[in-house]
Amino acid sequence: MDAKNEYLLLFRGKEWYSSLTPEEIQKTMDQIKGWFERLTESGKLKAAQPLKREGAIVSGKTGRIVADGPFAESKEVIGGYVLVEVDSLDEAIAIAKSCPTLRFGMEVEVRPVAEECPTMAQARQILAEALLATAAA
Amino acid sequence: MNTQTKNGYMLLFVGMDWHKGLSPEEMQKVSEQWMAWFKRLTEQGKAVAGQPLERDGKTVSGKNGRVVADGPFAESKEAIGGYFLLDVATMDEAVAIARECPGLAYGAKVEVRAVRAECPLASEAEAQLTEATA
To answer: What is the ipTM of this complex?
Structure first.
């Protein structure tokens, strides 16, 4: 697995179908099915799963706070994810742009998968720079 | 499509600023603890996937995705920094695992979500459609 070429698409938004007629819903569902089929056939789809709306948010030291969340009405709620393997962020964005539910208000967050935790990379860089500075002094 | 785990749960690590105020040594220590945690879970068969995300990214919205905005991810308390996919049987188990996250002590949060079995985006619509035509 080459994390350099993987991008995570996070789908955020309220239920896209809530104000549509049954015919419009069926039509859009067919478009979604087509969208997934094309992605699968292209070999770019690595994984995809929908998430149930309810869940929990764990926080605080030792995760002592467990709250219901996210709130179902929030427009930021992640409804599902798609993991793609493509050559560039632009390609991943193009895939996101072709998502059939965008026109109903859904948003797609496109994030490059990292080779390693950015914080780890950042720490290592700071330490390396400090070492260089010491050596130069 | 792979990773169609019936009893799947997703841990979304929320907050990409938990490292603020930590020394680089501390940052490394917590990151190493995080990776060791994932390794343990994988060896136990409880984690089937997990990836960190880069600090940058874009948000696509509007008709035909005509709006492409930079995400304010690096400084955000709400930005997703990574995820694990768990293969455990209950939400309680998933939450118990989430509570082990090394970033919690520094302000990170963990969102625990159950994975559905069917196809993304369409599953809820399907349910509504079934209700409407029933």
So the answer is: 0.91
